[in-house]
Design brief:
Layout lengths: L3 E4 L5 H10 L4 E4 L4 E5 L4 H11 L9 E3 L5 H4 L6 H12 L4 E6 L13 E5 L4 H9 L3 E6 L11 H8 L5 E4 L10 E4 L6 E4 L5 H5 L4
Parallel strand pairs: 1-8, 2-8, 4-6, 5-9
Antiparallel strand pairs: 2-3, 3-7, 4-7, 5-6, 9-10
Helix pairs in contact: 1-5
């Protein structure tokens, strides 16, 4: 496979990336944290190829990146009292570097997340949100690296790890964050931080987490 690289500022760049996604391809793109690589979550074959390209264990679910908070009701089943408990935190930290683990909706394929939950996030980068929105509102996306390797923050670093393994790299310059998102499991009480990252514990404590 030859990996195509396009400059995000170029005319038709997002349209080209969406074409690749809708044809079952894998696209790497910058987010507010690190570069991610994504596929349409409803395309089971594309999800399988994503696992293979990253050499990712099939027992590790793939998060969903959402274009906006409105997509949350589409891909998750929000428990009673969720809005009251977590609404202020979401309003403050989304878009941003916080991933939430929630009960998944039936629409989410087991290939994306084989268990009863799914990890979701809205990235704080207009380029990423535009791509996700134009692709349908959600992408199954994870860091654009080989599993176990450092997460890339530039298109060149993506090419070094996944060149020849994915279809397209959308080069939007260096990711400004450089640190993966914080993952918070909201399916247990009290919520549990599964991965420390872009959102610090002091910030979460301010919301009673």
């Amino acid at each position: 496979m030859k990996t195509e690289t396009v400059c995000a500022d170029g005319e038709g760049a997002t349209r080209r990336a969406v074409e690749v996604l809708k044809s079952g391809g894998m696209v790497a793109f910058p987010t507010d944290t690190v570069y991610g690589v994504g596929v349409l979550p409803w395309d089971r074959d594309a999800v399988a190829r994503l696992y293979e390209a990253k050499r990712r264990s099939r027992d590790k679910p793939i998060p969903l990146l959402l274009s906006d908070v409105a997509q949350l009701d589409r891909v998750t089943v929000l428990p009673p009292g969720f809005s009251r408990r977590f609404g202020p935190m979401i309003s403050r930290l989304w878009p941003g570097g916080l991933t939430l683990v929630l009960p998944k909706a039936a629409i989410v394929p087991d290939e994306v997340s084989p268990g009863p939950t799914v990890a979701v996030r809205v990235p704080d980068l207009p380029l990423a949100r535009e791509l996700i929105r134009e692709a349908g509102g959600a992408l199954a996306a994870t860091s654009a690296n080989l599993s176990g390797h450092l997460s890339p923050v530039t298109a060149r670093e993506v090419e070094e790890q996944l060149g020849g393994r994915i279809d397209l790299i959308l080069d939007g310059g260096p990711s400004r964050g450089g640190v993966p998102s914080t993952i918070l499991d909201c399916t247990v009480s009290p919520p549990v931080v599964l991965r420390h990252g872009a959102v610090g514990e002091d910030v979460l404590r301010a919301f009673g987490v």
